[in-house]
Amino acid sequence: MTETLTAPTATRGLVEITGVRKSFGPTEVLKGVSLTVEPGGVAVIVGPSGSGKSTLLRTINHLEKVDGGHITIDGRLVGYEVRGDRLHELREKEILKQRTDIGMVFQNFNLFPHLTALENVAEAPVVAHQPGKARRSKAEARRRGLELLDRVGLKDRADAYPRQLSGGQQQRVAIARALALDPKILLFDEPTSALDPELVNEVLDVIRELATSGTTLIVVTHEMGFARDVADTVVFMDQGQIVEQGTPQDIFSNPQEPRTRSFFSKVLEPAFNI
Amino acid sequence: MSSAATTVAQSQQPQPAPPAETPPKTRRPEDGAAARKAPDYSSYRVVAAKHPWRWVGTAVVALGVLAVAWSLATNPRWEWGVVAQWFTAQSVVNGLVETLKLTAISGILGFVLGFILALMRLSASPLLVSVSWTFSWIFRSTPLLVQMLLWYNLGYLYEKISLGIPFTDVRFFEVQTTTLISQFAAAVLGLTLNQAAYSAEIIRGGILSVDQGQLEAAAALGIPAWRRSTRIVLPQAMRAILPTAFNEIIGLVKGTSIVYVLAYSELFYTVQVIYNRTQQVLPLLLVATLWYIVITSVLSVFQYYIERHYSKGAVRNLPLTPLQKARKFFATHAAVPTRRNF
User: Fold this and answer.
1) Domain of life here (chain B) (predicted)?
2) B214 to chain A: which residues are within 8 Å by CB?
3) Could you report the predicted ipTM of this complex, rounded to two decimals?
4) How far is Cα B131 from Cα B118, in angstroms, rounded to an integer?
5) What is the pTM of this model?
């Protein structure tokens, strides 16, 4: 594979979430969540459906606005700016700039169907404003796009449209697209949930490879085997709160909370416990 | 109770696999093939299935078509000679050019204004939303004919039109309404505003049909708002917009004929003037009709290719163009004339 994407000195990509709350109408889906992910760390968030995992992930790049608490990346507030003793909401342009540091991969890929795989990957680097970086030329973005497609094993499908690719291939293109801006942080929102079981591993292998690259990864998933292999930190969420977090060893083999224990007793297959 | 008990008892008995009760092994294809050799049909001639009723139907319809064509050709009252004489006459062609001009200008302006109205309608500002809604409401509720006459007679309502600072007496520029609103201006104004009201709804529908995830993905990638609309949303919305938009434009081509109330010499008004002089009413209406058919046909061809362009990525493989289809038809049918009949 080609060179790694980030400088080996992983001094960037620190995510600090402090007391984040979020409601949709009368339902409070995040009830004061705090979580720190170290630069270059791999946090895997697990938990039952409706526990607020995806919402938490989406607050990190400000796709969801928080109702309370705050999130910082390398010490800088997401979506707000401190002026005096007030937090001013950032204008969309500034938010878009911040987002270029944060790549996101969606459950149902959200590839642009009218653009080829390569065009999907090469679109953002040409048009997005990245603080401290010049925008790339079209040729440069295409060259880089091909490199990234090569990295996810799809260089020969560069000119295919998403609909001509399998689900696993589409998700790999989506990962390449998220990498195109050299983000400090990558968010994965159930990246394998929409895939046929036989296609799950090709996507997980790509994420596994990224986990060693120094980029901070935050992954929401139901793939417990993957969580155990790759995570530094496993976070168990339920009903809008973090119930328990720790190393995979702690969480899977020796969960402290009864809620965690009962969840894993349902989702972990017997073969996995040996 | 007792029967349930016996079932339980039976099922508890350790049963060695009873060979007699297992269903017969699913037959593998080789079994039959080995038993009896399949006869070789390769030298037989294939006779296509007969469809007698299809032939009857075809004959009846062909007869009907022939009868219509015959009457068109032989009934002298169609006066094809007169049609041919006027079809390319200078005055008719001038009228045609005016019709095309009106269609193009009000079509383009109408869709541009419609796009702005659609964006207003989708905005977060309640005032913009309600202004856009009211615009569509008014212009869709009044007959085009009335709008046309209203614009032409604007000079009666407002004698002068001026540009200045509102609510003061400061005027930078002032002009008589009747000099500003010519027949052409009234026609363009009427058609454009009416068209904008309809196209706003069509464009809004198209934009709404694009999956929300597309916008999220674009936002997550930091793609700027304008680029997001033009590169991501609109190309996908076009698929929903185009069929109805072409309907509208074809409607507009014929809608321009309403401008005759302003005595504006587009195609329809021109032929009216001519037949009032020559009394050859039907042949001249036929001249106008044939030109409208020509314009619509050309537009339909454009529609086909533009829609095909925007279906990129929405279908796995692009549909063949009629030309490619014809080529394929002749290629396959010429190569294997008898064996494949379907």
Assistant:
1) Bacteria
2) 110, 112
3) 0.85
4) 11
5) 0.77
